[in-house]
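Structure (tokenized):
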């Protein structure tokens, strides 16, 4: 069984259990009077022509690396990311495989003024309502995990709830599906979710298949300013960086170095 299939199987069980604990009706009722979203798409689109917007990710662990950050205070990390020049923050909320929590996202949202992406494995409408209730401004939708009908429905529901969608792809056929479904933000994940192998070449090869009118984000495996320059040259609008930043003692400095303007 691939890692993605394993994670999705567990996620279905997890979501079913949460539905028994907190009803969808309760979540919907909690959305009355909720503050407007902060505009994830606008934040990563509005940057200088010669720079890439950075979506800085907060995660404690991953299936491939295990524990990444032993000292883990999401609100402190969020503050560092904002000081370092991030345009948005991504928060892992998956508990079993990434040691994440919805509480991490809430703490980040309280501490930071930046828009926040909920990074999880979305496969049920319930999770989209839940995302809005916990304070997310955007959600991740993984094309490889969803049927076309689900992708369309989830994107429409997110739009109704004032959530942006980062639609993640790993191959041309997935980009084609995302474009056909009307995705306005497409992420290229350089990590193969079946094998967890990472190659920046994935983004460099696939960028040309993303329409110029669509916000293009490169995700995973971005570790230095040279990588950022390569992605800038092929036309990416933004990068999503997690492990590299989480492993740094001085995340403000690491972000500044990563995003330094090309000479």
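Design, position by position:
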């Amino acid at each position: 069984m691939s890692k993605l299939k394993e994670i999705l199987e567990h996620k279905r069980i997890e979501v079913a259990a949460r539905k028994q604990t907190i009803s969808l009706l309760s979540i919907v009722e909690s959305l009355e009077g909720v503050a407007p979203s902060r505009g994830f798409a606008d934040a990563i689109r509005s940057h200088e022509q010669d720079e890439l917007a950075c979506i800085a990710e907060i995660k404690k662990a991953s299936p491939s690396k295990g524990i990444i950050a032993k000292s883990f205070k999401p609100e402190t990390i969020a503050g560092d990311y904002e000081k370092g020049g991030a345009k948005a923050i991504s928060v892992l909320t998956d508990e079993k495989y990434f040691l994440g929590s919805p509480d991490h996202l809430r703490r980040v949202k309280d501490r930071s003024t930046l828009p926040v992406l909920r990074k999880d494995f979305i496969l049920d409408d319930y999770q989209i309502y839940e995302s809005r209730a916990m304070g997310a401004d955007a959600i991740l939708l993984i094309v490889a995990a969803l049927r076309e009908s689900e992708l369309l429905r989830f994107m429409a529901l997110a739009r109704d709830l004032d959530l942006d969608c980062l639609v993640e792809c790993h191959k041309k056929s997935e980009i084609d599906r995302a474009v056909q479904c009307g995705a306005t933000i497409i992420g290229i994940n350089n990590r193969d979710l079946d094998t967890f192998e990472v190659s920046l070449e994935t983004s460099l090869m696939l960028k040309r298949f993303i329409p110029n009118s669509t916000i293009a984000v490169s995700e995973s495996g971005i570790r230095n300013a040279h990588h950022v320059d390569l992605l800038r040259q092929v036309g990416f609008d933004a990068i999503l960086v997690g492990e590299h930043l989480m492993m740094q003692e001085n995340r403000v400095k690491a972000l500044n170095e990563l995003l330094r303007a090309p000479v």
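Reviewer-requested clarification: The two ends are 46 Å apart (CA to CA). Strands lie at 53-58, 61-62, 66-67, 88-92, 116-119, 138-142, 164-169, 185-189, 215-219, 238-241.
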